[in-house]
Amino acid sequence: MEQQLNSYLQNMTLEEKVDQLLQLVGAFFEDAETDGQITGPMASLGITEETVRNVGSVLGIAGAEEAIRVQQAHLGKNRLGIPLLIMADIVHGFKTIFPIPLAIGCSWNVQLAEESATIAAKEASVSGVHVTFAPMVDLVRDPRWGRVMESTGEDPYLNSVFARAFVRGFQGKDLTNDTDRVAACVKHFAAYGAGEGGRDYNTVDLSAWQLREYYLPSYKAALDEGCEMVMTSFNTVEGVAATGNKRLMRDLLRDEWGFDGVLISDWAAIKELIPHGIAEDEREAAQKALLAGVDIEMMTSCYNGHLPELVRSGQLDEALVDEAVMRILKLKQKLGLFDNPLRGADPEREREVVFCEAHRAVAKELAIKSCVLLKNDSVLPLNRSQHIALIGPFAESGDILGSWSWSGSQEEAIQVIDGFKSKISSSLLSVATGCSIDEISEEQYAEALQAASQAEVIVLALGERSDMSGEAGSRSDIRLPQAQLELVKRLKTLNKPMVAVLFNGRPLDLHGVIEEADAVLEAWFPGGEGGAAIADLLYGDAEPTGRLTMSFPQSVGQVPVYYNHFNTGRPQLDPNTKERYVSQYLDVPNEPLFPFGYGLSYTKIAYDSVQLSSDTLTPGQALTVKVRVTNTGTRPVEETVQFYVRDISGDTVRPMKELKDFRKVLLAPGESQEVEFALTEPQLRYHHADLSFDSDSGEFAVFTGPNSRDTTEGRFRLVKETGK
Fold first, then answer.
1. 409: Cα separation from own chain's centroid
2. Which residues contact 337 (CB under 8 A, 6 or more apart)?
3. How far apart (Å, rounded) are the C-alpha atoms in residues 599 and 549?
4. Which of 377, 414, 556, 651 stands 20 to 30 A from 34 (CA)?
5. In the chain, how many domains are there?
6. Which of 19, 200, 266, 346 is catalytic?
7. What distance lies between CA 407 and its chain's CA centroid?
8. Are residues 516 and 609 in the same domain?
9. Prediction pTM value
10. Is 266 a catalytic residue?
11. pLDDT in tens, 246-274
């Protein structure tokens, strides 16, 4: 087959080679009817019909009949019969929409995360898609950034675990023969989540040390799992826009990490090298991007317009074009497209597979496990005999899918009201909108007051519209809109038990809700089965087991606030002492409102003191860390036991805690289990000031607990005979 690929390459003209490096949306193909989700400006590209005949990939076509029609038409026009790669943003489901990735992270359920990707791949592939632009593994610490909803949180270890799971789910073990899978594309390389001020597309300024220690591990984990593609990020890295950053893309990604898969720009990112200020014009942008190793240009025509001239003038070696084309051809080969250009696309099977009951059942299970109970003052679970007032803009809304769910259907989503109707009779349910997302009228409030007056418990369905987060969804004020806070405040005066269910794509400043409500359930955007999942949780037919993977701030002024922070030379040891000259805020605590790993259940779990097998650890051996956990309540529960480590003294400053492992244990009422972790020396390695990766002899602390704050501690020493 390598010979066949070389034959294709040798028979291409230079222009045909360059056209293989171009990706266009479906609107450029006369046989296409859709163009997916548009995520950037549609510039005038000056694309000719001949270029479209030779283009290498298309973005946003989905639907078996359309994919077949476009592929067959393309093969009839392409001189060498080279098939198209069909790509799409299948981020948290195709037609069956799962919770947003941030919510999936809060499940801490790696197996279900992988299964969600497997289902998404199956639905996408049978609908004609070959590549998904997922997983997004950017480390996120700033909830102002709308795209936190696409990540799994603030911890590099947990992000890496989920990155691997998503890649396994999308790709499986045999992309060539398993046509129920799609190629994965990890994004956005690199450090896109660190934009200044939480503003999308903004500048990133990190040290090389911080980049390697915290932001790069999850991308590397995805590649180690075999991820076929990488997408460049919009931001700068060490002063150079990523898409033209040779040091990042060719020296690190290609040479140091050995990645030889396809590197694709994000939407128009090559042309955006011009406003970034590292390219004077499209010609220079094309040159710098190809030198950096970018194979596919998405939705601008810098390559198409200038690479042939740059090669013929001797300013670029044609070998750089050839290697990019060959990487694209190899991916098409791996997907089996030369032998079967239609691959998994099958309209009849599509009708059977897509949005089927089995897939929806998994979506519901994952939604249940992704919701996080933040507060419960003995009001949950609800009783089926109670009269409920369901009030709020999300009471009867299908806008619960979240961003990046363009193939999903809000009309087919299970709404909160549907979930309640499955639990109690209509005579026990009063419903009112109360307010819109960001406006409240006296008529709406009067309707809410009427509904609440009949009720024993008020359930408020509150949150953000889905377009208030996601790409280009940055916000400086991360509180709920004032209209909803006003509704909460007014209904509080009725002195009835009140439960708030929140729909949002980011951690929020919850003041105005957390003090007023007796219970708060963070539902995120739970996907198409969200209403059913929420009803199961509120009525106790399912146990809340979700745990936060991103800290909730006291206020936006704390941001960024995250659990694995450093100490300072003047740490705040006791906030109650009111000592002046320490690192602190005068108006809010240093700590977040809810920390990483936090979440409540309907039962209580007791943790005994942590036990270590030894007070020393040496290379080549393992230290066993044990903790006994007991369900002291009356309901069975799944507990996520979390394991953290702190390096007391290092070559560089070390975080106060770092997640190293976790276990999920099922506990019957009154049951105890001993949970065991094995710690080895490689887990203690980190990047030193010279960027070497090693561990240090010295003292360490270990912590176990239900979250990053409420832990029990033990100590040991790492003893190394040689080295640092």
1. 21
2. 83, 85, 130, 343
3. 10
4. 414
5. 2
6. 266
7. 18
8. no
9. 0.97
10. yes
11. 999 999 999 999 999 999 999 999 999 99
